[in-house]
Design goal:
The chain has 382 residues and is α/β, with parallel strands linked by helices. It has a domain of 97 residues: Rna Polymerase Sigma Factor, Chain: A, CATH 1.10.1740.110. It is 33% helix and 15% strand. It has ten helices and 14 strands. It has an eight-stranded mixed β-sheet, sandwiched between helices. A two-stranded antiparallel sheet has the order 2-3. Strands 6-7 form a two-stranded parallel ribbon. The relative contact order is 0.13.
Length: 382
């Protein structure tokens, strides 16, 4: 039986700094980065044998604040409905960790951070990063926490990419994985949407070649990139249900001001996004997503056997990360004799469904984690 669901209450962000000179982190590009600070939050308690840890990876615009409330905040963390007592990731049973990725702008080292060599923000001189670099930084935090093996790694969208990368890089340290609405590599269409967003930012005169920190950030370009993104996150049906062709003031005004409700919604989303996100971080993070390619041998070599169990979730109306990409993940896992379960959830929400189809996700994840936890208790943790 699941326990009664309740809030985590007030939580605090923590910080871990590593990769001090001369031991900077060597990135996939060959460049070095350091020192590096990771912002992270933890929920629940780590058990004595440290076997109940779950790593939650965030999507493009997410951060370390996955659940609970910060002091004076009105809104909880971005996955609060899924993390907490009695929820899918039950903090009465599991110890949850979520960190902001490198390249981000919510407490972890990124383009807006101060470059110790110049004493100025990195800006566009921040080294180009990959999903692999993000996970490698997280691995350092995992070591700092003294956790040898994770019970589970999970995340949706870019969080799902990190989940897959965790298994590719450290299969012996991941007992199970739940990649949600994601893919092993970006398709040309997915790369194209990212590139349009990047071009929108770089075309804004306020971008100033990426060195805008002593001025104002390119709000128009970043807002436009976010508007484009939001269109891809929804589905035709969800937009019809939410907006249809409803007008904001009841009649045409014959101007280019936002008249349709969907226009107002997109502008609001864009304007609110620039208040909490850095334009350069958007560039670097989307590029990292485009670089990911875990197809074939890059994911699991032919001669490699892994014991990680998978629950792969997709959504029927998701056209940004269509379900065939999740099925491709499962087909490949099956070809390598990996324990993999696939569930395609019927939803009209599009890609946003991984943040909205909470009941169905909770049911599937709850039972999957119960099975994995029982396996560990039975001595099959290795």
């Amino acid at each position: 039986m699941m326990t009664e669901k309740s809030s985590l209450g007030i939580v605090e962000t923590k910080y871990f700094t590593f990769a001090h000179a001369p031991d900077e982190l060597v990135l996939e590009s060959g460049q070095k980065l350091g020192p590096i600070t990771l912002a992270y939050e933890t929920y629940g308690e780590l058990n004595k044998d440290k076997s109940n840890a779950i790593w939650v990876c965030h999507a493009l615009s997410g951060d370390a604040h996955a659940a609970g409330f910060h002091k004076d905040d009105k809104k909880p963390g971005w996955w609060d409905e899924m993390i907490g007592p009695g929820k899918a990731f039950d903090t009465n049973k599991y110890f949850i960790v979520c960190s902001n990725v490198i390249g981000g702008c919510r407490g972890s080292t990124g383009p807006s951070s101060i470059n110790p060599k110049t004493k100025r923000p990195y800006g566009i001189n921040f080294p180009v990063i990959t999903i692999g670099d993000m996970v490698e930084a997280q691995r350092h935090l995992l070591d700092e926490l003294g956790i040898e093996r994770l019970l589970c790694v999970t995340g949706g969208s870019m969080g799902g990419m990190q989940t897959l990368q965790w298994v590719a890089a450290y299969p012996d340290r991941v007992k199970s994985a739940i990649p949600i609405a994601t893919s092993l590599k970006h398709s040309p269409q997915q790369i194209a949407f990212d590139e349009v967003g990047r071009q929108a930012i770089m075309a804004d005169p306020a971008w100033r070649g990426g060195n805008y920190y002593s001025h104002v950030q390119p709000e128009r370009g970043l807002a436009l990139a976010r508007m484009i993104g939001h269109i891809t996150y929804m589905s035709d049906q969800s937009m019809e249900e939410k907006f249809s062709r409803r007008l904001r003031e009841g009649d045409y005004r014959f101007t280019f001001a936002p008249e349709f409700e969907v226009e107002g919604y997109l502008r609001h989303r864009g304007d609110s996004f620039v208040q909490r996100f850095d334009a350069n971080s958007y560039l670097f993070i989307t590029k990292a997503m485009d670089y990911l390619d875990l197809s074939g041998e890059k994911f699991i070599p032919q001669d490699k056997k892994i014991s990680t169990s998978f629950l792969v979730l997709a959504f029927k109306s998701d056209w940004l990360y269509p379900s065939y990409q999740s099925r491709d993940i499962v087909s490949f896992l099956k070809s390598r004799d990996v324990d993999a379960t696939y569930c395609e959830i019927k939803s009209t929400y599009g890609h946003d469904a991984f943040l909205l189809e909470l009941d169905e996700e909770t049911h599937l994840i709850h039972h999957f984690l119960a099975r994995i936890s029982q396996s560990v208790k039975n001595g099959n943790g290795r």
